[in-house]
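dumping this here before i forget
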Amino acid sequence: MEKFSNINELIVALLIWITSNSDYKNPQKDINVEFLKQSQLSELACKRDCEILAYTPIEPKYKIYLSDKLNPIDNICDRGILLHEIIHVLQEEQKKFAENDERTRKHLREMEALVNHNIYLSQFGKKILYSNGFAAKFKTQTKNNLYCWLNSLDSISDILKYPKCISLLII
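structure:
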């Protein structure tokens, strides 16, 4: 796994991967990542306590909030989450699936981000599980080195309650 000295170097590397492995172009502006305490991130994204790990709002554009529990510089699973959120920034900027109604657009964007998330992780021998366009949360606590352990919003319906945001939904 590559080593990066700071988050901006990592963002550039992930953008190179995304633009080399998809039809996305580099963003028109720099992407800014801010780490928040879990309670702050929950309040911002869910307006209540929830297990969300990452949140990319429609406004402000080019902004990604990550839980301070994540370490994308050193952890490949956390790095995959950041890649997933960067894809959401690009989807919004480049109006991906804009011709669809809001619910369908969100679903298609999430599904596409999850597929790319898994392709990226597969290069490091990791993956996430997903079904019906959303990631799945393990019901067991047994250790499995193949899968990334993810938590997020409590239900699929949560993403539809917050129309002004795009968020990593791992249930």
